[in-house]
Specification:
This is DUF4398 domain-containing protein. Keywords: Signal. The protein has a domain of 76 residues. It is elongated, with a radius of gyration of 16 Å. By secondary structure, it is an all-alpha fold. The chain contains 5 helices and no strands.
Length: 113
């Protein structure tokens, strides 16, 4: 019974996560790719990598909110032209996204037996 409740709660969260979008209808990757001309090449590369990594974790249904927040901070810094902040936040977002994907491979615990 508890496994059923957990499965239903997880399905509900995944459904709600799919409803998120940006205000103008473009994806975050498209929006930031259009607004990053004032940052260094390494910051642009780190931002693209972070967007890819966070997108992969979102696709797997295991996106961490801290990774999404760090990516948003990196995108905001890119709009302001702050390469150092972009590098810091993009690397943090990538790291968290990779950890969230790796978490799916961890063995489950049978707490609810």
């Amino acid at each position: 019974m508890t496994k059923l409740l957990i499965a239903l709660a997880s399905a509900g969260l995944l459904t709600l996560g799919g409803c998120a979008s940006t205000s103008n209808g473009t994806s975050g990757t498209q929006a930031s790719a259009q607004t990053t001309p004032g940052i260094s090449a390494s910051a642009q590369t780190a931002l693209k990598q972070a967007e890819s990594d966070v997108g992969a974790s979102k696709k797997d249904g295991n996106e961490w909110t801290t990774a999404a927040a760090a990516l948003k901070n990196a995108q905001d810094a890119a709009k302001k032209g702050d390469s150092d902040a972009v590098l810091k936040n993009a690397k943090f977002a990538s790291e968290l996204a990779k950890l969230s994907v790796a978490q799916l491979k961890y063995p489950t615990t049978d707490v609810f037996k």
